[in-house]
């Protein structure tokens, strides 16, 4: 049984301050922005010592308030490295997580060690408190037109203020090596980059989810290089 860590839950006794939300303008070459959730969307983190056969990729050591450190055993979702590389070719990629910075920043450092794929990071202090607990990631007021913004998150509540911009994924539990959710998301993103309003692409391709599953989610490669090259050519 995998221990479940839910960093998206808001506790009532937590101190709250207005969200910290500073993002510079997106790069001209990649005017569309992809916000990616972290926990259970790109990775799964197991707190403490996992079972001996737990398939983790790396460990992060996170300091706690009591001057102790806590180990997290982190598993990348299948296809994650390729997904991030492909996404960064097409989009400005921003990690938007409800987790705290000391924990999340150490994981993102491992996912993008050279800092070339992920342009910015937004942590818990950039989220709004949800009405029934949890966190909401408000995509407005970030200096990006909502027609150019997508978010991928395993919790629809996270993008409840801009539902049309959200691509849902099933939560990754750390052990399912047959998981193909990122293949499916990549197929949507390849199409969305060609739309003037990405929300139309989301609506269209969510309606065709079954077809996408069948057509695009079973191959060994997440991204179709032809799409990426075509996109680059359009930009230049
Ligand atoms: Mg999540």
Automatic annotation (TrEMBL):
Q: Name one Pfam family in it.
A: NIF
Q: Which SUPFAM superfamilies match?
A: HAD-like (SSF56784)
Which residues belong to any copy of the FCP1 homology domain?
27-192
Tell me the GO molecular function terms: phosphatase activity
UniProt superkingdom: Eukaryota
Q: Which PANTHER family does this one have?
A: DULLARD PROTEIN PHOSPHATASE
Q: What is this protein called?
A: FCP1 homology domain-containing protein
Q: What is the lineage of its organism?
A: Eukaryota, Viridiplantae, Streptophyta, Embryophyta, Tracheophyta
């Amino acid at each position: 049984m995998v221990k479940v860590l839910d960093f998206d839950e808001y506790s009532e006794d937590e101190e709250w301050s207005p969200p910290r939300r500073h993002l510079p303008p997106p790069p001209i070459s990649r005017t569309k922005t992809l916000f990616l959730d972290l926990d259970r969307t790109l990775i799964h983190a197991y707190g403490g010592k996992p079972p001996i056969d737990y398939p983790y990729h790396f460990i992060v050591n996170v300091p706690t308030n009591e001057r102790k450190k806590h180990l997290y055993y982190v598993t990348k979702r299948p296809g994650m490295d390729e997904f991030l590389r492909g996404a960064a070719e097409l989009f400005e990629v921003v990690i938007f997580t409800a987790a705290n910075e000391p924990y999340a920043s150490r994981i993102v450092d491992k996912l993008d060690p050279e800092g070339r794929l992920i342009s910015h990071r937004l942590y818990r202090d950039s989220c709004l408190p949800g009405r029934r607990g949890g966190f909401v990631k408000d995509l407005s007021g970030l200096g990006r037109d909502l027609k150019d913004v997508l978010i991928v998150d395993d919790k629809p509540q996270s993008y409840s203020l801009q539902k049309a911009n959200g691509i849902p994924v099933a939560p990754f539990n750390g052990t399912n090596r047959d998981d193909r959710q990122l293949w499916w998301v990549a197929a949507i993103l390849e199409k969305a980059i060609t739309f003037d309003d990405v929300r139309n692409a989301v609506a269209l391709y969510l309606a065709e989810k079954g077809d996408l599953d069948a057509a695009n989610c079973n191959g060994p490669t997440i991204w179709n290089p032809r799409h990426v090259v075509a996109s680059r050519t359009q930009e230049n």
